[in-house]
Amino acid sequence: MAILEVFPAQAARPDAEIFDTIARCGIISREVTGMQEVLHMLSSPWVVGPIVFIGWLIGLTIIMRIIYGRIRDLAARTSTDVDDVIIGALRLPMLLVIIVTGVLIVARILPLAPDWDKGVNLGVKLAIILAGVLFVDGLVKALLRRAARKAAFVRTSAAIVQTTVRGVIILIAVLVILDTAGVSITPLVASLGVGSLAVALALQSPLANFFAGIQILADKPIEVGQYIRLDSGEEGYVTNIGWRSTTIRALPNNLIVIPNSRIMDAIITNYYRPQRDLSILVQVGVHYDSDLEHVERVTCEVAKEVLQEVPGGKRDFEPFIRYHTFGDSSINFTVILRAEEFVDGYLLKHEFVKRLHKRFKQEGIVIPFPIRTLDIKKEDLLLLKGDVPPS
């Protein structure tokens, strides 16, 4: 009776048809219920959230790639490359911001507990701070790399400057993160002040070398590649100016490591300043009976020949001599040559001495040995000979 009440129009039909209709209605009912369950599941925040997150990442990444590409193309056509540096430094932080904003959207969709929601908000803030740190760090690194191509000072000091700037950025980022997390940074700042004083006292020598290195790089009394000599005797090519020490490669090819503070306190002879080529002085002496005009002419000829033929000689320089002293056994003069750089002077002197000695022999010019005249009384000479008996 219950079935006939539900399907009154089917009461007059045979029993087989009635039960078939009931079966079909049950199948439809189950299909509707299944669709409702699927729709209910799809409308769940735990399903919608990940879908929205994936869609957000894909969509925004495509949009940002298009926009970023167009901006990069516009920057490439400008006369300056500063905008290219900025755009290059923005790439990684932008990707991080896209991910973080997607996480924030998902957090707003999901029914998170208050504690979890607070944690997500804090994580988003920290990620944005991290993106800012990455941007500044990448920008400084790129600007230093760009400046290093134009300035030798930046090329030699890039490591020090980048380390210093990175340390400052990280310190500021840590303070901002702690403040964002609700931690009071006032006691920490005070502790840093006291701690910095203690560290400065404990690390007095390293800090002195560090600031001396910065002063060397800023004032530039020496630069990498230059040949220098210290008043303490060390000399050679400067190979590196670090945050603690300066390295010099001596002519025997060994390295001399000198603390920067010692460099700043030393008297330095820089053979590359004001220019690389320099005068080479050779001291010579000739006999008092020599024709000085002839000596000058022959010496200048040999010197000119050496400058023209020996590597490192300044070919357009006209050598000359200057007489300066009546010595004990010779008239002394200085020969002035010109070398391309300091170390070339060794070979120039070597060849000049050889050729001048040979030419002087050919010209009959005498380079005298030191002579000492002894004034002895005649009686003493006779006494030495034995002709006069002692009184």
Quick recap:
By secondary structure, the protein is α+β, with helices and mostly antiparallel strands. The chain is 62% helix and 13% strand.
Could you please describe the fold and organization of this structure?
The chain has 3 domains: 45-181, no CATH class; 206-270, SH3 type barrels; 278-363, Alpha-Beta Plaits, CATH 3.30.70.100. The longest helix is centred in the middle third of the chain and has 35 residues, at 114-148. The model is unreliable at 1-13 (pLDDT under 50). The protein has helices at residues 2-6, 15-42, 45-76, 82-109, 114-148, 152-180, 186-202, 204-219, 260-265, 292-309, 344-363, 378-385, and strands at residues 227-230, 235-241, 245-249, 255-259, 268-270, 278-286, 320-326, 331-339. The chain is elongated, with a radius of gyration of 45 Å. The protein is 62% helix and 13% strand.
